[in-house]
Amino acid sequence: MGKDVGVGRKLGAPTIRDVARLAQVSPQTVSRVLNNPEMVKKSTADAVQRSIETLGYRPSQAARMLATNRSGAIGVIDTGSEVLGQLLLVSSIESAARSADLSPRVVVTGEGTIPDFTAAFQLLRDEMIEGLIVLCNTTLHVREALRVSATIPTVLVANDEPAVTGISTVSANQRQGAADVIDHLRRYGQRMAMITGPSGWVDSDSRLQVWKENAPLPNTRLLRAGDWSSRSGFDAMLSLLDEGVDSVFACNDYMAMGAIWACVSRGLRIPEDIAICGFDDVPGVDHYNPPITTVRQPFAELGREAVRLLIDLIHGESSTSVVLPTQLVVRRTA
């Protein structure tokens, strides 16, 4: 009963001492292999790595921070949207961060007010994050992110924002996506309406500006504001039907869904009577009835790129601005 069965007797998670014992080296050598492998002979490092894999050892966050003076944690501020595209973006950031052996800390700011944003930033700073990614939905969020993040490597996921010192930006090409929709809808007639997102949202404002510059008849009577929901698209479309329209550019897919249902409820055919385009290409729109013509945003790539840019900043690289392409996906609504 008193026999020492070595490493195998451990019931909890393996420790650095267990790794050292199995590899027949000191705990200090294991630490060097983990944090400064160039200081250790290859044969020794290989033996330690084999022991790590055999035992399934993972260094604790606290131990890593003490050894390297790095936390391995990054902060993500989600400025409160429940739109599916935003959720897809957060998910891709988390996945990319973990693939890079970073620990993402996500904080949602509720309504996205300045006090909420400041509190979220302070909470993340208290967790010793090495860098910050901010999903900037509105111009207010952009200004606040630029103010509070001046002391830490930061990436803004924000449209039309130039890179500044210490802060990189990544975005999808909203203007090109909107221009592609407008060019596509021209064939249906001159009265091209638009259902926008909420005023002040950077993506919606950018798409609206393109409509004002390029629509055949950029008449404000053909504009309606939505709130990204399908209900707002439904209500906006019913109002637009009184104006007489040939086509509708809805600024996201949910509002496009509502607009389609409004037309169907009035006995109109899509696209024979009214053509409708959405934006985002969220999962499911390809199986809507009818499948929705829309603009695909590269949510997964945006998340990966945001993490890559942040890692570069943490390692001392210069800030930069990256704009990723969108793609018009033609289906059956236009």
Summarize the structure.
The chain is α/β, with parallel strands linked by helices. It contains 12 helices and 12 strands. Helix content is 43%, strand content 16%.
Name the helix and strand elements from N-terminus to C-terminus, one letter apiece: HHHHEHEHEHEEHEHEHEHEEHEE
Unreliable stretches, pLDDT < 50, 5 or more residues? 1-10
Broad shape: elongated
Question: For the residues shown, what is the average pLDDT?
Answer: 86
Secondary-structure content class: alpha/beta
Distance between the termini: 78 Å
Number of helices: 12
Fill in the keyword field for this structure.
334 residues, alpha/beta, 434 Repressor (Amino-terminal Domain), Rossmann fold, 3 domains, 6-stranded parallel β-sheet, 4-stranded parallel β-sheet, 16% strand, elongated, disordered N terminus
Task: Explain what you see.
This protein has 334 residues and is α/β, with parallel strands linked by helices. It folds into 3 domains: 12-68, Orthogonal Bundle (434 Repressor (Amino-terminal Domain)); 73-172 and 299-325, Rossmann fold (3-Layer(aba) Sandwich), CATH 3.40.50; 175-296, Response regulator (Rossmann fold, 3-Layer(aba) Sandwich), CATH 3.40.50.2300. Helix content is 43%, strand content 16%. The protein has helices spanning 16-23, 27-35, 42-55, 61-68, 84-99, 114-126, 139-148, 174-185, 202-214, 230-241, 253-265, 299-314, and strands at residues 73-78, 103-108, 131-135, 154-157, 167-172, 192-196, 223-225, 247-250, 275-277, 294-296, 321-324, 327-329. A 6-stranded parallel beta sheet has the order 2-1-3-4-5-11, with helices on both faces. A 4-stranded parallel beta sheet has the order 7-6-8-9, sandwiched between helices. It has a two-stranded antiparallel ribbon with strand order 10-12. Helix 1 crosses helix 2 (27-35), helix 6 (114-126) packs parallel to helix 7 (139-148) and helix 8 packs across helix 9. It is elongated and about 80 Å long.
